[in-house]
Amino acid sequence: MSDTIYLRNLHLSAAVGPDRWHRSGKRQPAILSLRLKYSVLDAAAKDDVAKTLNYGTLCGKVIEFVDANSGKWALRECAYELGRMVGTWAYDVPGEEPKGEVQVEILLPKGALRVEGGLGIELSMKGYEVTAQVFIVKELRVPCIIGVNAHERVEKQIVVINLRMSGVRRSDLQLNGQPMVKAVAEHVEGSAFETLEALVTFVARIICMNFRVELVTVSVEKPSALPFVDGAGVEITRDRDFFRQND
């Protein structure tokens, strides 16, 4: 049995690292989502709002916290401190460290050129301990030659790339985010693969071998592949050892 209370896509303005033009200290849009493991048994049995977390209060605390600390931390540190604040409020036991589970996702939709969904981080915490962190690149759009049909070998079409990276050193998270996006975009735009399977592996190799990422999940899709389908694609997960052993 597992219960979760969540806020999805809270739109904020904050200075959390460089914007897409590499300017630090500038406010930019930030989209924040929270998930908290929290039992709703009492609230459900008694139909009593006092027995659960008030997500309106939670939302207000998040807005106040982010606004008060804008420009103080980079992306990863902001996610961590926000998780600490939320966990302390939600699971407060006097004299004890909070032991509840919180997941924080922060996306910067204008964090890099060509990236429509944004750069971001997903941080999972238990108490004050980070149990998982994933760096996210969402909806990188790049034109390239891809496909086996004659017309696909002549004209470039857009592919949409999504990345989820684990084992990224803390100092590399936002520092390498924009150079990573630029490198992937340039390599993909200059490629001419026939299959998405080859292209998605090509991208995974760049991420793992050029940017010291231990584990990456890459999806690449063609929005224009089929007339009545929003997108057809391939998703793979690879680690650095795979490329060390196969290159």
- Principal-axis shape equals elongated
Structural class: alpha+beta
Q: Helix count, per DSSP?
A: 6
User: What portion of the residues fall into strands of 2 or more residues?
Assistant: 35-45%
Low-confidence stretches: none
Overall average pLDDT: 90
- Describe the main β-sheet briefly: 9 strands, mixed
The H/E string reads EEHHHEEEEHEHEEH
- Share of helical residues: 25-40%
Count of extended strands? 9
Distance between the termini: 44 Å
Radius of gyration: 20 Å
Q: Quick gist of this model?
A:
With 247 residues, this protein is an alpha+beta fold. It is 29% helix and 35% strand.
How does this model look, in words?
The structure is a single chain. The chain starts with a strand and ends with a helix. Helix 2 runs antiparallel to helix 3 and helix 4 packs antiparallel against helix 5. Strands 1, 2, 3, 4, 5, 6, 7, 8 and 9 form a nine-stranded mixed sheet that branches. The chain is of the alpha+beta class. It is built from six helices and nine strands; from the N terminus they run E-E-H-H-H-E-E-E-E-H-E-H-E-E-H.
What structural keywords apply?
about 250 residues, alpha+beta, 9-stranded mixed β-sheet
What is the element layout, followed by pairings?
Blueprint (H helix, E strand, L loop, with lengths): L3 E11 L13 E10 L3 H6 L8 H14 L6 H16 L10 E8 L6 E12 L2 E18 L10 E10 L10 H13 L2 E2 L2 H15 L4 E8 L9 E8 H7 L1
Parallel strand pairs: 5-7
Antiparallel strand pairs: 1-2, 2-3, 3-4, 4-5, 5-6, 6-8, 8-9
Helix pairs in contact: 2-3, 4-5
